[in-house]
């Protein structure tokens, strides 16, 4: 993205903002389409629910992975058709179901939810086609098979067949599995997809599900830092073609991949400005507007790193709050050739409000603009923007013609 665009926007609005670059989103969508022609895609709205982002997603014929009833409504507002909105979340209330049963495909997350959906369908005198989330009997990265708050355990399915069949007002028409995000090894994803397909065949043959779709969930990772290698999406796509061919006889239904960060993360930049600069006992401090309360990731990364005991690369991610200690880059948008070591902080009344300690940056002046990369996913909505009642950053959507669309809060 052109630096001039960012500078002009800061001049005009004089407050921190997120900016999302449509060209990058379009490019990511293109990669998915080219490499996975057999699949449909759902955009995980929670990743970035900005209305202009969702509109672009809808324009590109991508459906929605909605994680709340309000995400179902946002999807409808953006023009996504009902059959492409799949509502999957743990802990839906009966009211959530009542308000959405005719607006999307609901994925039940527990046996209790299946019962509730059946009740709602009965009250409306219909038979509703629903999905079910399954906690598959598979360890995606080796190790133990873990319990989960999500879905129903694969091994419990058969013993619940009678119960499921007794629910006369629903018909299970799809399965949803999601075990992990941010996978960069294509073979890990390939083996996982293979396992989900086997599970789907079991669901048809042994459980009698009338399968309209198999939803493989998310997992497509992105290289956040230069240390990481991009997911070899072309190799994954190639292997998936053969895999799917092998299952064609037994499964003839929609194949769905969900994706959030892969589509939007790199499109987003968080932009703030330097309010003050000072030296304390020999250390340089730069204070910016809306640090932690604008973009949460640097402060969380600094906190996690302060507890690290051992190599930073080994710290486990806690998605989507913490991905890695270097999951973004801090840039100063000035022309200075001189470098200096500074600690960049936000203007909150807590020392935890840190962008980065001892960063070596071009010499920073008051008024300079600071841009942080990889801010397009799990950024604005996960940041505590109400803390200390500061002005809330704007969100700016930059379309392919460099027109801007502002969301003000
Ligand atoms: C069920 C499900 N699908 C998809 C996603 C999207 O993940 P990502 O942003 O890593 O693509 C998530 C993220 O939490 C998820 O829980």
Automatic annotation (TrEMBL):
Domain Orn/DAP/Arg decarboxylase 2 N-terminal, first and last residues per copy: 25-264
Required cofactor(s): pyridoxal 5'-phosphate
InterPro entries: De-COase2_C, De-COase2_N
Keyword entries, A-Z: Pyridoxal phosphate
Domain Orn/DAP/Arg decarboxylase 2 C-terminal positions: 17-376
Superkingdom per UniProt: Bacteria
Keyword Chloroplast: no
Protein's UniProt name: Diaminopimelate decarboxylase
Species whose genome carries this gene: Intestinibacter bartlettii
């Amino acid at each position: 993205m052109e630096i001039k665009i960012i500078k002009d926007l800061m001049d005009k609005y004089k407050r921190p903002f997120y900016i999302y670059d449509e060209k990058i989103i379009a490019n990511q969508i293109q990669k998915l389409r080219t490499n996975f022609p057999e699949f449909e895609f759902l955009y995980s709205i929670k990743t970035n629910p900005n209305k202009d982002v969702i509109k672009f997603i809808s324009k590109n014929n991508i459906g929605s992975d909605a994680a709340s009833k309000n995400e179902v409504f946002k999807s409808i507002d953006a023009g996504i058709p009902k059959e492409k909105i799949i509502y999957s979340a743990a802990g839906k209330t009966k009211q959530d179901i009542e308000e959405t049963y005719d607006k999307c495909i609901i994925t039940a997350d527990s046996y209790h939810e299946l019962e509730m959906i059946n009740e709602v369908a009965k009250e409306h005198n219909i038979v509703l086609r629903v999905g079910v989330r399954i906690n598959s009997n598979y360890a995606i990265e080796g190790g133990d098979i873990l319990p989960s708050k999500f879905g129903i355990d694969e091994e419990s399915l058969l013993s619940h067949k009678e119960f499921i069949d007794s629910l006369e007002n629903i018909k299970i028409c799809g399965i949803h599995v999601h075990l992990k995000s941010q996978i960069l090894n294509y073979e890990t994803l390939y083996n996982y997809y293979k396992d989900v397909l086997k599970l789907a065949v079991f669901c048809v043959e042994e459980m009698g599900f009338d399968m309209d779709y198999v939803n493989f969930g998310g997992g497509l990772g992105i290289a956040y830092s230069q240390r990481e290698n991009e997911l070899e999406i072309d190799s994954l796509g190639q292997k998936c073609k053969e895999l799917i061919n092998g299952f064609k006889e037994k499964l003839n239904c929609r194949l769905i991949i969900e994706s959030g960060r892969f589509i939007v993360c790199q499109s987003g930049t968080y932009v703030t400005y330097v309010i003050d600069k000072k030296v304390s006992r020999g250390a340089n401090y730069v204070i910016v507007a809306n640090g932690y309360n604008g973009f949460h990731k640097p402060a969380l990364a600094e906190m996690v790193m302060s507890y690290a005991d051992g190599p930073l690369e080994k710290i486990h991610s806690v998605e989507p709050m913490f991905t890695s200690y270097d999951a973004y880059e801090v840039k100063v948008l000035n022309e200075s050739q001189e470098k200096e070591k500074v600690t960049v902080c936000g203007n909150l009344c807590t020392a935890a409000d840190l962008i980065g300690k001892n960063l070596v940056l071009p010499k920073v002046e008051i008024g300079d603009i600071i841009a942080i990369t990889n801010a397009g996913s799990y950024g604005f909505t996960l940041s505590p923007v109400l803390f200390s009642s500061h002005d809330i950053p704007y969100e700016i959507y930059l379309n392919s013609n460099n027109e801007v669309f502002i969301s003000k809060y």
